[in-house]
Amino acid sequence: MASRTALAATVGFLLAGLATVPASAAAAPTVPAGARQVLAANDGWAAATTGTTGGAAADDAHVFVVRNRAELAAALAGGTDPTPRIVLVAGTIRANVDDANQPLTCADYADPAYSLDAYLAAYDPAVWGRAARPSGPLEEARVRSARNQGARINLRVGSNTTIYGLPNARLVGANLLVQNVDNVIIRNLRLEDAADCFPAWDPTDGAAGNWNSAYDLVTLTGATHVWADHNTLSDGNNVDSAQPLYFGRPYQVHDGALDVIRASDLVTISYNVFQEHDKTMLIGSTNTVGADVGKLRVTVHHNKFANVGQRVPRVRFGQVDVYNNYYYLTDEDAYSYSWGVGVYSAIYAENNFLLRSADLALEDFVYDWGGTAMTEKGTLTRIGTGPVRAVSLLDEYNATHDPDLGTDAGWTPVLRAEPVTPTAQVPAVVNTRAGAGRI
Ligand code: CA
Ligand code: CA
Known about the structure:
Elements: H1 4-20, H2 33-36, E1 63-66, H3 69-76, E2 85-89, E3 92-94, H4 106-109, H5 116-123, H6 125-128, H7 137-153, E4 154-156, E5 161-165, E6 170-172, E7 175-179, E8 182-187, E9 190-192, E10 200-202, E11 210-212, E12 218-221, E13 224-229, E14 232-234, E15 245-246, E16 249-250, E17 258-261, E18 265-270, E19 273-279, E20 282-283, E21 298-301, E22 304-310, E23 314-315, E24 319-323, E25 326-329, E26 339-342, E27 346-350, E28 353-356, E29 366-369, E30 375-377, E31 380-383, E32 389-390, H8 393-400, H9 426-433
Parallel strand pairs: 1-2, 2-5, 3-6, 4-7, 5-8, 6-9, 7-12, 8-13, 9-14, 12-17, 13-18, 14-19, 18-21, 19-22, 20-23, 21-24, 22-25, 23-26, 24-27, 25-28, 26-29, 27-30, 28-31
Antiparallel strand pairs: 10-11, 15-16, 31-32
The chain binds calcium ion (2 copies).
């Protein structure tokens, strides 16, 4: 008589085998309507020119239900196959696993020549100084270690792809890499904690140095026509406040939540929740006047930004439409700024709502990273449950900083699918509609 263990192993084998059967040979999975949805006409910059349809045209053979990293990676095909595909994420997928879906720890990735203790000893400012970034054998061992982790958690997404979360889907520890491709939709997914096992110390970053990490939850690099909609992005249960200090600086294991860099263009980021994360949305990663000129056009609307620290967004070069977002900022300790006005940037901010704690100063909301102007209209703010009042966060900035930023970004958005929501309604609309599980 077969033992229960053997039977379970057999069932497990059969289930595992199913994943390798081509979808065409199995019954076609049911596709939720939201996974076939395309971006509406005029809904932000991603609606420009050819619009954004993702994998909506996928045939049955290119609809995949994925339950673990290996299945997800197989369905994405390394991001190299432009055949339209719909990837349906089921349950929790963890990226830090081996091919048998067994957990990998940071120690599993570490090069034999690397240890954090040795790294801390070698590059302590008291030993190494502060004039140069780390170099030498230990830094090289760190880079090799990071390469091992990157090979597991960086998941490339190809052109004409929709990634859609089935109920309660969650992707933990992965960096979705949308690189040099066109036409991608990411919807209804919880994305958490793309933690870097091997942060790099940079004594030249800022006045006191910084620990920097490599992975975003989603990176758009050289990507066009991308719609990120109804996702929830966060550090999960690995929050920054629980990380140690080394050399007096936070050991930052997270990088961006959703970054848009290197000549990416025509992006709509709508109805997402970003929460409990520091570097939230970098649009443009270099001040160099080159490939980014005329690109980095992004629409950011009806998102909730709940206790995120900075870069919400930070913009270089792009015409970026930031409207109807709900900023919920009650953690002054984790707060830096929200609208980063960088070189050649053109932020148009309309009808955003800021709920804040009393100790969060209005003048800190805008930060000048070398820009010249932005447009702001219709902002409302309140402290806790106090009275709602109109405010210009740009005026608050200019009143306390010099030189002033101008008040005209030099363009007016036209790609908006619906009338702008009255600002007073933004908290209720965003609270009930934004985030995963709300389609
Ligand atoms: Ca990044
Ligand atoms: Ca001033």
